[in-house]
Design a protein that fits this description.
The complex is a heterodimer of chains A (about 300) and B (about 200). Chain A is of the alpha+beta class and about 300 residues long. Chain A has two domains: about 150 residues, Cytochrome Bc1 Complex, Chain D, domain 2 (Orthogonal Bundle), CATH 1.10.760.10; about 80 residues, 2-Layer Sandwich (Ribosomal Protein L30, Chain: A). Chain A is about 35% helix and about 15% strand. Chain A contains eleven helices and seven strands. In chain A, strand 1 and strand 2 form a beta hairpin. The longest helix of chain A has 27 residues. Chain B has about 200 residues and is mainly alpha-helical. In chain B, a hairpin with a 2-residue loop joins strand 1 and strand 2. In chain B, helix 4 packs across helix 7 and helix 7 crosses helix 8. Chain B contains nine helices and two strands. A two-stranded antiparallel sheet of chain B has the order 1-2. The mean pLDDT of chain B is about 80. The radius of gyration of chain B is 36 Å and the shape is rod-shaped. The relative contact order of chain B is 0.13. Classes of the chains: A alpha+beta (about 300), B mainly alpha (about 200). At the A-B interface, helix 1, strand 5 and helix 11 of A face helix 4 and strand 2 of B.
Chain lengths: ~300, ~200
C-alpha cells in the first residue's frame, strides 16, 4: 500500500495550519502596528532615548527577563462616580448622595461631602454610572465618572491599565517576560522615576529594598579613585557599601544604559484600545499665556483699515 | 492431523469481524451542542480578530462603551487638535497674527454664542469682521469641516476655556446639529450673516 501522498498531505496541512495560526495571523494582526494617538491626542508610543534603547540590550544580556515580566493584566473595568464640586443646594445634594450611596444617613452624607473630591460609588455598568452622575448634578454640583481598569495587577499597583501591543512597538526584541520572581516592570519608570535609586538598587538591591532576592550587579559599576571632588555619577552609598576614602563607585556605560532603560518603562498612556480616565488637564489659566491687553493690541495690528 | 476435543472447542469460537455499527444518536447531539457552544464562545470573546479589541473587552462596540467621557473634563484633546490645525495662524496662545488671523483670546466671537463660533470652522469665514474693536478683512477656509464632531467640540471648548477665556462648553451634539443644518454648504460665512444667527 502506498500512503505516501496521504502522509504528505496530512503533514502539509498540519504545518500549514500552524503557520497560518502562529505566524501569519499575528503578523496580519499587529505586524503593521504604528504609532497611535492617546485619548489626549498625543502620539504614543514615543521611541526611547538612545541610551535607554541600549539599555534594553543590557536588560536582555543580563537575563532580567528571566525574573521580571513587563506585562500588566486586567480582568475588568469599572466606573467610579466622583463629586468634585458641591453645588449651591446642599440639601438636595445630600439627598441625591443618599440616593446613589445607599445605607448612609444624612449626617454621615454631610460629613462625606466635607471632603471633596469624593468617590461616591463604583458601578460595573456605564448606564448606571451616567444615571448616578445625573442624579448628583443638582444645584450646580459637578460630578463625573472615571473609567477604572481593575484586576490583581492593578491592585498591586503595577499599572493603571493592561498592556497592549503598542507598548512594545519600539522594543527589539519585545521582552514581555513570563515569570514574576520579581515585580512586574511595565511601569517601573512611573513607580520609581529616580535614576539614582535604580543605580543604587542595581549595585546593592538590599540597600534599597529590604529582603530583596535580586542579585546585585557589581560588574555594571566600577570603583575608581575619586578626584578632588566626587564625580556627579558617583553613587551615594552609605555604611559598609560606601567605597573607602578617596575612592568612589560609578556606573559603567552599561549600568547607566540599564538604569535609563528602566526609568523609560512607562505604559500608562490612555489609549482607545485600553481606555482609562486621566487626570483632567487643568484648564489653562490664561493668566500666564494671555498677553496683556495693550501688548496684544500692539502686535495684532488690523489687516485693513 | 488428529484434533482433540479441547482444540475443537477453541476453534469453534467465531473470529471477530469488522461490521458497520450504529453510532449512538446522543453522540451526534453532544457533538452539535459542543460545536454550538464553541461558536458562541468564540463569537462572544474573540472580538473577531479585531486588532483593537483586547480582553476584557469583547468587541469594538463594547470598547466604545468603556471610553472615558470627553468634553468638560478633558481639554487635552482640544489642545492637541488646536495646535495641529488652528495654531499655525491663530498662534498657539490664541493671540492671532497680524495680517493672518485675528486673536481668539478675549474675542467676543469665541466666547459668545456657541451657535456662531461652531459655524466658522465648519464653513469658513470671509470678509470684514470686527474683533476686539479692530477691523479685520481676511478669509478663513473651512478648517473644521474635516474634523470629527468630538474633535471640533473639544477644540472649540479648549478655545472658549483657555487663555483667560471663560465660556461654556461646546458639546459634540451641538456641532453635529449645526453640521447637519449646514448640509454641504461650501459658501463661507460673513460676519453680517453670522450676526443674523440666533444666539441660542
Amino acid at each position: 500500500m502506498n500512503h505516501g501522498p496521504l502522509i504528505f498531505l496530512a503533514a502539509f496541512i498540519a504545518l500549514a495550519g500552524s503557520w497560518f495560526g502562529v505566524v501569519l495571523t499575528p503578523q496580519l494582526n499587529v505586524g503593521q502596528l504604528q504609532q497611535t494617538n492617546t485619548l489626549n491626542g498625543a502620539l504614543y508610543p514615543v521611541a526611547r532615548p538612545g541610551v535607554a534603547q541600549q539599555g534594553l540590550q543590557v536588560y536582555r544580556a543580563n537575563g532580567c527577563v528571566q525574573c521580571h515580566s513587563q506585562q500588566v493584566g486586567q480582568t475588568g473595568t469599572v466606573f467610579d462616580v466622583r463629586v468634585t464640586e458641591a453645588g449651591t443646594n446642599r440639601v438636595a445634594l445630600n439627598e441625591a448622595l443618599r440616593k446613589v450611596k445607599t445605607g448612609v444617613s444624612a449626617p454621615e452624607a454631610e460629613q462625606l461631602l466635607e471632603r471633596l473630591p469624593l468617590d461616591v460609588a463604583r458601578f460595573t455598568n456605564r448606564e448606571d454610572a451616567e444615571a448616578a452622575v445625573k442624579t448628583l448634578g443638582v444645584g450646580g454640583t459637578k460630578a463625573h465618572f472615571l473609567v477604572v481598569p481593575v484586576g490583581p495587577d492593578m491592585a498591586r499597583g503595577w499599572g493603571k491599565r493592561r498592556s497592549v501591543a503598542e507598548d512594545y512597538l519600539f522594543d527589539a526584541p519585545a521582552l514581555p517576560g513570563g515569570v514574576r520572581i520579581g515585580p512586574d516592570l511595565a511601569n517601573i519608570g512611573v513607580r520609581q522615576p529616580d535614576i539614582n535609586w535604580h543605580l543604587r538598587h542595581l549595585y546593592a538591591p538590599r540597600s534599597e529594598v529590604k529582603g530583596s532576592t535580586m542579585p546585585s550587579y557589581p560588574y555594571l559599576f566600577e570603583k575608581r579613585r575619586a578626584g578632588r571632588e566626587a564625580s556627579p555619577d558617583a553613587l551615594a552609598l552609605t555604611g559598609k557599601l560606601a567605597a573607602e576614602k578617596g575612592y568612589e563607585i560609578v556606573p559603567t556605560a552599561e549600568g547607566k544604559a540599564l538604569a535609563a532603560y528602566l526609568v523609560s518603562l512607562r505604559s500608562e498612556a490612555p489609549l482607545f484600545i485600553s481606555p482609562i480616565s486621566v487626570a483632567s488637564a487643568a484648564p489653562a489659566g490664561g493668566d500666564t499665556n494671555a498677553p496683556a491687553g495693550g501688548a496684544g493690541a500692539a502686535t495684532n495690528a488690523p489687516a485693513t483699515k | 492431523m488428529k484434533v482433540t476435543t479441547n482444540q475443537t472447542a477453541i476453534m469453534d469460537v467465531a473470529e471477530p469481524k469488522a461490521v458497520a455499527g450504529q453510532v449512538p444518536v446522543w453522540l451526534f447531539v453532544l457533538g452539535f451542542v459542543l460545536l454550538f457552544w464553541g461558536m458562541y464562545y468564540f463569537d462572544q470573546r474573540s472580538g473577531w480578530f479585531k486588532t483593537e479589541v483586547y480582553a476584557p473587552y469583547v468587541s469594538v462596540a463594547d470598547l466604545q462603551r468603556y471610553q472615558p467621557p470627553t468634553g468638560g473634563v478633558d481639554l487635552g484633546r482640544g489642545k492637541a487638535v488646536f495646535e495641529n490645525v488652528c495654531a499655525l495662524c491663530h498662534n498657539p496662545d490664541g493671540a492671532g497674527k497680524p495680517n493672518q488671523a485675528p486673536p481668539l483670546t478675549g474675542s467676543e466671537w469665541v466666547t459668545g454664542s456657541p451657535a456662531r463660533i461652531i459655524r466658522i470652522p465648519l464653513a469658513g469665514l470671509s470678509g470684514p469682521i470686527e474683533v476686539k474693536g479692530q477691523q479685520w478683512n481676511l478669509s478663513m477656509p473651512a478648517m473644521g469641516a474635516a474634523l470629527s464632531d468630538e474633535d471640533l467640540a473639544a477644540t472649540l471648548t479648549y478655545m472658549r476655556q483657555s487663555w483667560g477665556n471663560k465660556a461654556s462648553e461646546v458639546t459634540p451634539e451641538m456641532v453635529k446639529a449645526i453640521r447637519t443644518l449646514l448640509g454641504n454648504r461650501s459658501q463661507p460665512f460673513t460676519a453680517a450673516e453670522l450676526l443674523t444667527v440666533p444666539e441660542k
